[in-house]
């Protein structure tokens, strides 16, 4: 796909102007193409930066405005050069239009120069921690429903002991027991990772929690749950930008976490 059309595609996705089929094609491309997914993330980060300065124009209009200014300046510079050179030399000169991708990255460079001001307007770690405390609840035991009472330590399996410790809030003990489980298939392995991540999160081992949630693939049966708790991890760590990126994804995907994700975004954007 032409790069200019690609950026317009990204913009239309974020503006909600894609048809259902186009939106699905966009999400498929984002999942399959790491480079494209990186451009989508960069676009969102730049949009967030512009929003901090009260810009009301759509992002593409802002970029097009900068691009036009550069083109005009290029024309002025060429005209000045013509006054000092012969007409024949002037005829050989060409003004090369600025490609939108360069304008796009120029926008990124501008924002980097003023990132210090941006940081002053972003939520503080104390504020993101308050949001974490408001919205975080350990993921419930929905995968081991048959055992609800405290197990007999001599007859109960490691799995049952792990879930019993988890339900009781004994996360250090649950962590060790979950680590002892291997899982018979990918679905079971992802389940274990989700509960490991929750144990780490409750124990303030935030790096380990993030790794556990990130290890659950986008095509997993609990991908949305993993993203939600990854966002909670970022909020607890005070990394608002990372939390916002994951929360935006949850809103875009819809599902059971979309409303809560939208509520948090309204409070930190």
TrEMBL record:
Mind telling me which residue stretches traverse the membrane in this protein? 102-121
InterPro entries (alphabetical): TPR-like_helical_dom_sf (IPR011990)
Give UniProt keywords alphabetically: Membrane, Transmembrane, Transmembrane helix
**Protein name, per record:** Tetratricopeptide repeat protein
Q: Which organism is it from?
A: Dawidia cretensis
């Amino acid at each position: 796909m032409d790069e200019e059309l690609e950026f317009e595609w990204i913009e239309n996705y974020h503006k909600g102007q894609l048809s259902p089929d186009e939106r699905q094609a966009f999400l498929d491309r984002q999942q399959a193409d790491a480079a494209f997914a990186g451009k989508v993330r960069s676009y969102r980060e730049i949009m967030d930066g512009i929003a901090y300065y009260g810009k009301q124009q759509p992002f593409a209009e802002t970029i097009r405005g900068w691009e036009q200014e550069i083109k005009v300046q290029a024309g002025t510079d060429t005209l000045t050069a013509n006054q000092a050179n012969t007409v024949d030399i002037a005829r050989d000169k060409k003004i090369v239009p600025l490609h939108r991708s360069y304008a796009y990255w120029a926008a990124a460079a501008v924002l980097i120069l003023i990132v210090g001001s941006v940081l002053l307007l972003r939520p503080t770690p104390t504020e993101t921690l308050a949001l974490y405390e408001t919205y975080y609840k350990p993921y419930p035991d929905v995968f081991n429903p048959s055992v609800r009472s405290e197990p007999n330590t001599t007859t109960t399996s490691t799995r049952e002991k792990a879930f019993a410790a988890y339900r009781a809030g004994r996360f250090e003990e649950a962590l060790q027991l979950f680590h002892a489980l291997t899982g018979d298939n990918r679905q079971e392995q992802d389940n274990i990772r989700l509960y490991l991540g929750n144990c780490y999160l409750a124990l303030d081992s935030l790096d380990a929690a993030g790794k556990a949630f990130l290890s659950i693939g986008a095509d997993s049966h609990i991908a949305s749950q993993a993203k939600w708790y990854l966002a909670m991890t970022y909020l607890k760590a005070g990394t608002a930008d990372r939390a916002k990126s994951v929360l935006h994804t949850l809103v875009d995907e819809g599902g059971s976490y979309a409303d809560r994700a939208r509520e948090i975004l309204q409070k930190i954007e």
